[in-house]
Structure formats: C-alpha cells, structure tokens
C-alpha cells in the first residue's frame, strides 16, 4: 500500500493558481466546495500540500480526460511506502521518548545536585550558628567572671579602707595620749623647777638678812 506526498510544504494562492493554470477565484471556489479552511499569514492565504493536492484533484475531476493535469509532475510528488514511513515514524517516536527519558534523567541529576548543595549549605550555616552560640556563651562567662572579680575587688578595697581607718584612728589616739603624758610631765617638771627657784630665793633672802643683822649688830 502506497501513498503520495508532495515535496513542497505550502503554497501561496498565486503560486497554486499558476501551477494549476487556473484563476485564484477557481482555487478559492474548489477550496470552499471541499470545506477546506485556508490559513492566513501576514494577510496572505497559505495552502498546505495536502490541501493543494485535494484542490488539484477536484479541478481535474471537472476536466476532460485529455485536459487533466499531471498532478504528480506539477507538485513533484514522490511515492513512499507506508510501511517504511510507519517504521520511520516509530523510530522517531522511540528517539523522542529516549530523548525525553534522558532529559528527565538529567533534570533529576541536576535536582539531586541542587539538593546536595543546599544540604551542604545548611550544614555550613548550622556550624556557623553553633560557633556563634559558643562564642556568645564564652563572652557571657567572661563577663560573669569579670563582674565577680570586680565585686571581690570592691570587697577587698572596702575591707582595706576600713582597716586603714582603724589604724589611723589608733595612731591618732596614741599620739593624743603621748601628747597628754608629755604635757603632764612638762607641767610637773616646770612645777619642780619653779619650786626649786622659789626655795632658792627664800634661802638667799634668809641668808642676806642674817648677814646684815650680824653686820649691824642686830
């Protein structure tokens, strides 16, 4: 079983009318009679090879035998074996399916790589977060230790200040006591000296009186 296929894929209305040696209106009338809907591209009618063959056959059917057109020559039609064509279609279908499968495999591999990369990035982020938490804990411990040392230092300073104040007070008291004793001793010595001079004056006065009494016979 064989079928015919035209080499050229599409024709303009002008090209087809010239090939069939008819007017453009004749082509349009046969297309309308066959319920062929022609496509417009850039405001120009486009006729596919299948449509052109049907229109050509319709025109031939209205011509006498001796005026019929050789459509195979006009459209450069070539004979193809349907079975071979079906095999080619099957081969193309298999190739297409194989390409699709390979594409899906490649996409799957790409997705797996992306997932692996994201997991790696998440691990890196987790490690960074753990390090930040560890650093924060160390800083908090260091701050706590510094505060404890500061409190201990303040306590020691207060104790030393209290002790120093006590020593200063004792020293002042000792000085005051020593000063008092010194003053008492000084006063006592002064009194003794004064008594000595007083006694000396009295003795001198007595001696002088006795001398003059003897001198003047009194």
Q: Which quaternary structure do these chains form?
A: single chain
User: Could you tell me how far the N terminus lies from the C terminus, measured between alpha carbons in angstroms?
Assistant: 203 Å
- In CATH terms, what is the architecture of the domain at 2-75? Orthogonal Bundle
Tell me the number of strands: 5
Organism: Macrococcus hajekii
Region (Disordered): 166-189
InterPro entries: RocS-like_C
Domain Regulator of chromosome segregation-like C-terminal: 120-142
Would you write up a description of this structure?
- Residues 166-189 are annotated as: Disordered.
- This is DUF536 domain-containing protein.
- It comes from Macrococcus hajekii.
- Residues 170-189 have a biased composition (Basic and acidic residues).
- InterPro entries: RocS-like_C (IPR007489).
- This protein has 218 residues and is mainly alpha-helical.
- It has a domain at 2-75: Arc Repressor Mutant, subunit A, CATH 1.10.10.
- 78% of the residues lie in helices and 10% in strands.
- The protein contains 5 helices and 5 strands, in the order E-E-H-H-E-E-H-H-E-H.
- The chain has a 3-stranded antiparallel beta sheet.
- Strand 3 (39-41) and strand 4 form a beta hairpin.
- Helix 1 packs across helix 2 (24-33).
- The relative contact order is 0.05.
């Amino acid at each position: 079983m064989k079928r015919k296929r035209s080499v050229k894929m599409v024709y303009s209305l002008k090209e087809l009318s010239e090939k069939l040696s008819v007017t453009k209106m004749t082509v349009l009338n046969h297309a309308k009679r066959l319920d062929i809907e022609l496509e417009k591209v850039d405001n120009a009618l486009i006729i596919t090879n299948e449509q052109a063959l049907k229109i050509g056959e319709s025109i031939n059917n209205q011509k006498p035998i001796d005026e019929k057109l050789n459509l195979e020559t006009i459209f450069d039609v070539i004979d193809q074996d349907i079975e071979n064509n079906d095999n080619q279609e099957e081969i193309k279908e298999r190739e297409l399916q194989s390409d699709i499968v390979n594409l899906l495999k490649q996409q799957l591999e790409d997705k797996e790589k992306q997932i692996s990369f994201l997991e790696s990035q998440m691990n890196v982020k987790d490690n960074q977060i753990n390090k930040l938490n560890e650093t924060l804990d160390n800083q908090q411990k260091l701050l706590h230790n510094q505060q404890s040392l500061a409190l201990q230092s303040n306590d020691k300073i207060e104790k030393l200040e209290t002790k120093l104040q006590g020593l200063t007070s004792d020293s002042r008291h000792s000085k005051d006591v020593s000063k008092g004793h010194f003053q008492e001793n000084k006063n006592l010595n002064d009194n003794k000296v004064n008594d000595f001079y007083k006694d000396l004056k009295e003795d001198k006065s007595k001696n002088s009186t006795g001398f003059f009494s003897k001198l003047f016979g009194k």
